[in-house]
Design a protein that fits this description.
The complex is a heterotrimer. Chain A is an alpha+beta fold. Helices cover 56% and strands 14% of the residues of chain A. Chain A contains ten helices and four strands; from the N terminus they run ααααααααααββββ. The model of chain A has no long low-confidence stretch (mean pLDDT 84). Chain B is built from two helices and eight strands. Chain B has a six-stranded mixed beta barrel with strand order 1-7-2-4-3-8. A two-stranded antiparallel sheet of chain B has the order 5-6. The model of chain B has no long low-confidence stretch (mean pLDDT 91). Chain C is mainly beta. Chain C folds into two domains: 74 residues, Beta Barrel (OB fold (Dihydrolipoamide Acetyltransferase, E2P)), CATH 2.40.50.320; 76 residues, OB fold (Dihydrolipoamide Acetyltransferase, E2P), CATH 2.40.50.140. Helices cover 8% and strands 45% of the residues of chain C. Chain C is globular. Strand 4 of chain A pairs parallel with strand 1 of chain C, so a sheet runs across the interface.
Chain lengths: 272, 139, 197
């Protein structure tokens, strides 16, 4: 039985390595590799060369594994490669825990147990095949191959994400939107007030006075008042002022009011 | 009013972090060009390379952005207040094809995300909390 | 009480008189020269900007540690705006918060801040799932939980005005969002979501 399982491992390993190597030649992969642990290991200057070199090794190994007959040394090479992956993942977790792997898919986030489990599966597959030796491909072997590919798919963070997304979409169709209650909210968000203000002629004409972001805002009747710090005057430093805008609740940019107040004449703000 | 010498394009600008820092920016690397830092006057350009263009596809928003490689200095003007900053390209981005919408200020509108600035560069000409502003880019 | 007095005065100033007030008090209202944002060499850190985490708060001064463990003092004044999910004051700021600050570098090396943005993030993400009050977000470096804050979180769909209505958000959609990171967690409070309509 072990010989049947071992017989399909070259096929399994070859397919996986072909996928991993081929992915690394995509342009998207190279851009994403900039955030991977490999970038931290070899530096930005040598990243492209190193990344492509790893891809070539993977593809070359895939090629020899997929081309019959599967020789023992090819399988030991796969063992070494899988061992190298595990070491790289270990390095990532210790030295660059927030970095991505850059292994087989883009944007997979930081290295987690799925990456280790996937690399462990590859190492086990290679080790079983290298140790046991070759045999004929049987139905049992093909069934095991199918299960291995399915397990690899489920373990891969990239496909886990795709499956998770499909479930999310299905839930979306079957139940009311979890945030449906926000549709009934009457309050105008601050962002909406700021958009109206920024889009108004009075803001455009006076934006160069402003030195700060919004310092304070409050509602009075149908108005929202926003206060900014600013500077006016001919001197390099100028006079510190508070620039206050009043934005009406209705959409009426011509009604937006502005006032400039000498900051030194105001009561102290409560900052502590 | 704008700074710089030759007009390139109008659109919108946003900001991003790079170089590793606190929070979700902790894992951020040095950008596609290397050396990108949130505290420096750096930017991401959608056509920093052919590989970059394939991801950002500014043409899908009707934007014709010339190739400007890593290290190129551009001038970015906030069309709301006329303030301008120079920046050096240190990353690939933004993904213009996903953000073709417009942003307006005083009746001046820009559409299509054509550049992302570091927090240092964006805050020199706009408020970080605004997120997106209409802009103009010059050489 | 002082904050209310200040608001009262400002409300009176902007609503009480003519639509545009203040020009006569200051003569021709011209912007003062913005402090020369000394356009630093391309790869040097901008001296008028600070990026780091707060290690101490003493009165109106923040001590911030940045890249290469560089310590900087940031001075908060009456003319400083503080953002932490929304416009707020220094009392909302805690040790351990991250921040960006823009201002003027003083001779003693400190920064007199014009604006401080605490824990602010601006990220692109994929909405992987939507729960009651929480959005699961997948961004370039991993996963985040985005918390909907009643009265604050809003969404901008395409070119429409911002709205508090979040019921049009869809699983699988790509969004950009501004939010405030909760230090040392994978959680973010969301201020604004920019969604493609």
């Amino acid at each position: 039985m072990l010989e049947s399982i071992a017989a399909v491992q070259p096929l399994f390993l070859g397919l996986v390595l072909a996928w991993a190597g081929g992915y690394k030649f995509t342009r998207r992969a190279l851009v994403a590799a900039g955030d991977s642990a490999l970038a931290r290991l070899v530096g930005d200057r040598r990243l492209t060369l190193t990344y492509r070199a790893v891809a070539c090794v993977e593809l070359a190994t895939a090629a020899v594994l997929l081309a019959p007959p599967a020789m023992r040394w090819e399988l030991w090479l796969a063992v070494a490669l899988a061992g190298g992956f595990l070491s790289y993942l270990g390095y990532t977790r210790i030295a660059a825990p927030t970095s991505s792997c850059g292994c087989m898919g883009s944007g997979a986030g930081r290295v987690g147990w799925r990456h280790f489990a996937r690399a462990g599966l590859l190492l086990a597959a290679a080790a079983v095949a290298a140790w046991t030796g070759n045999g004929p491909i049987t139905t049992l072997g093909l069934a095991v191959l199918g299960v291995e590919l399915l397990v690899l798919l489920l373990l891969s963070p990239e496909s886990h994400h795709a499956i998770h997304l499909q479930f999310g979409r299905l839930k979306e169709r079957l139940r009311p939107h979890p945030l449906a209650a926000t549709k009934e909210l009457a309050q105008i968000p601050l962002q909406a007030t700021l958009e109206r203000l920024y889009d108004s002629p009075v803001y455009a004409a006076n934006a160069s006075l402003l030195r700060s972001d919004v310092q304070d805002y409050w509602d009075v009747d149908d108005w929202r008042i926003l206060a900014f710090a600013g500077r006016v005057g001919a001197e390099p430093a100028g006079t510190v002022v508070t620039v206050v805008f009043a934005v009406p609740a209705e959409l009426a940019p011509e009604r937006i009011r502005m006032s400039i107040v000498d900051a030194s004449t105001l009561p102290e703000p409560s900052l502590n | 009013m704008a700074c710089g010498t030759d007009f390139i394009e109008r659109g919108t600008m946003s900001w991003f972090c790079c170089g590793g820092s606190w929070g979700p920016c902790g894992p951020a690397g040095g950008g596609a060009c290397g050396g990108c830092q949130s505290g420096s006057l750096h930017a991401a350009w959608p056509n920093a390379s052919a590989a970059c263009f394939d991801i950002t596809r500014p043409d899908r928003c009707g934007k014709s952005l010339p190739r400007r490689g890593c290290g190129t200095v551009l001038h970015v003007t906030n069309r709301c207040n006329g303030q301008c900053t120079r920046v050096a390209i240190r990353d690939c981005g933004p993904r213009t094809q996903s953000f073709c919408g417009q942003n307006c200020c005083g009746g001046t509108c820009g559409s299509g995300r054509i550049i992302d600035l570091t927090p240092a560069a964006f805050s020199a000409i706009a408020s970080l909390s605004a997120g997106v502003r209409p802009c103009r880019v010059d050489d | 009480m002082e904050a209310l007095d200040r608001r009262k005065v400002l409300t009176g100033a902007v609503l009480g008189g003519a639509a545009l007030v203040g020009a006569t008090a200051f003569g021709s209202v011209e912007a003062a020269h913005a402090h020369e944002s000394s356009q630093s060499l391309d790869d040097a850190l901008d001296p008028n900007f600070v990026d780091g985490r707060i290690t101490a708060i003493n009165g109106m001064t923040l001590t911030v540690i940045g890249l290469q463990n560089l310590l900087t003092q940031i001075r908060i004044t009456d003319a400083t705006s503080v953002w932490k999910l929304r416009p707020t004051t220094l009392k909302s700021v805690d040790v351990g918060d991250g921040l960006y600050a823009r201002g003027a570098r003083m001779a003693d090396g400190s920064l007199a801040a014009d604006a401080v943005w605490v824990n602010i993030v601006n990220l692109h993400a994929e909405l992987t799932s939507i729960g009651r009050g929480v959005l699961h977000l997948r961004y370039g470096h991993g996963q985040l939980r985005g918390h909907v804050v009643p009265g604050t979180t809003s969404a901008v769909y395409g070119d429409e005005p911002a709205t508090a209505d979040l019921s049009r958000l869809r699983v699988g959609s790509h969004i950009q969002f501004i939010g405030a990171w909760r230090p040392d967690t994978d959680d973010v409070d969301i201020a604004t979501i920019f969604a493609v309509s």
